[in-house]
Design brief:
mainly alpha; Helix Hairpins; PFD2; 60% helix; 148 residues; two-stranded antiparallel sheet; chaperone
């Protein structure tokens, strides 16, 4: 591959550079997925808290963790704050989903540009030929017995 300048990016010089760039992009995609999952878990925890304290008396005492410090408040003070936090988390998740879609498109364009194909299926077929019996899980390998 020739080294040319396209806009502000340089074309990768060899296959190893392309592979490294692709791996970095995939890693970034996985990080976005894990962050979205983590934030969705927090949203579900916020929902559980909201559902648990909403029917209670607003003047009732409750405790809330703020910056690692447990503080005593009333439900009427805590409930709006928890709801705001939940809404904020949902907005961040929405932005991360947009970023995720952009990153997926970028990876798809990169795959098309450099004709990248994942070799999982090919590697599995090659690996199966060297395996011993018992790992095929219901797949008949080789011809059936000749004595019928």
């Amino acid at each position: 591959m020739a080294s040319t300048v396209e806009g502000d990016r340089k074309e990768p010089v060899n296959e190893q550079v392309v592979a490294n760039m692709y791996a970095a992009m995939r890693s970034e995609l996985n990080q976005i997925y894990s962050k979205i999952t983590e934030l969705e878990m927090e949203v579900s925890e916020h929902s559980l808290v909201i559902n648990a304290i909403q029917p209670l008396d607003p003047s009732r005492r409750c405790y809330r963790m703020i910056g690692g410090v447990l503080v005593e408040r009333t439900i009427k003070e805590v409930l709006p704050a928890v709801q705001r936090n939940k809404e904020g988390l949902e907005e961040v998740i929405a932005r991360l989903n947009e970023t995720l879609e952009k990153k997926k498109k970028e990876i798809a364009e990169f795959e098309a540009k450099y004709k990248i194909r994942i070799r999982k299926a090919d590697a599995d077929v090659k690996d199966d030929s060297g395996r011993k019996e018992g790992t095929a899980q219901g797949v008949l390998v080789g011809p059936a017995s000749g004595s019928e």
